[in-house]
């Protein structure tokens, strides 16, 4: 049995406001990186837009990886999350609005590197704050709420790019305002119930109980690797889904692809909430993750075998729903398995590498497989990665 913990629960207000703040984090980068930045790069470097965008994306990913670990660690040392969140919000917002002031691709690259530093100054402490405030028996519920984040990130991009709503400069300002509107409420009004047993500051008896119930380090490593494998598949589909659909049906354009994306993200929210509540009630944090990665592998196999547009869409919907639920719940359940509260922010920064490293791996995987063997081979390889993730989690050990 797990050692007993105080049965105090975090408030509904904090959980919902925290989920809104995480959604604000998604709004901070999803519409910018997928819609607004490519347009700006095209304006500054019309002769080699793809090359310039690749360099900027690579430099941004490196900057995000390092700064997320750094600011998670600094928020651990200072024992303060909110101050770093506010500072990061202010810095990233100012730099985002300043994108339009860049005169060439080199300036834009430098600004993006610094913008990623400011963004992760906000995101890293925000992620660790949940570990400080949300007990294990509510982490599944929190994971379900976090499924709103990618959906709201995608929705914000659709809203700000509606023709006639805003020009290029105003779109950046709108993104900054939406992010502030999402993040500030939890910082100013969240007022979480203190959870000293989650902070490593309870009395000696509780600390001893925590040490006895600490999860095996191999389980933490398995969770890290499982998420990395699933994220590689997710990144590949995010970048190349439109191109693949076009090989099956040339008339299947970007608007219809965006509709499929939106439907999958919307449907994943109730599924993630149901799966999260089930895992809380049954104290089975890893089982929904195992099922999600396994079903994701099945969806990829269906995509690899698809020869009609209908079967292709069905395969992607299965994959997209399963992995969206996996990623939302994995984010919250990771907090349960981290070994030390005192280094929670730093450790989450290391877990964040599973979000940035795939963008460095995925292009090489695409180049190695698709030109020679087609998308079918890519999907089968990605299915194998998702299946390995499932096996890693099914065989993981935890103290129960």
Task: Explain what the structure shows.
With 400 residues, the protein is mainly alpha-helical. The chain has 2 domains: 12-204, Growth Hormone, Chain: A; 214-394, MFS general substrate transporter like domains (Growth Hormone, Chain: A, Up-down Bundle). Helix content is 80%, strand content 0%. It is globular, with a radius of gyration of 21 Å.
Overall 3D shape: globular
Give the helix tally: 13
> Rg to the nearest angstrom?
21 Å
Helical proportion, percent range: over 70%
First and last CA, distance: 5 Å
CATH architectural name of the largest domain: Up-down Bundle
CATH class of the largest domain: Mainly Alpha
Largest sheet: none
Mean pLDDT: 87
Low-confidence stretches: 202-213
Overall structural domain count: 2
CATH level 4 superfamily of the largest domain: MFS general substrate transporter like domains
Report the count of strand segments: 0
Characterize the quaternary organization of these chains: single chain
Question: Beta fraction of the residues?
Answer: under 5%
Helical/strand content category: mainly alpha
CATH topology of the largest domain: Growth Hormone, Chain: A
Order of helices and strands: HHHHHHHHHHHHH
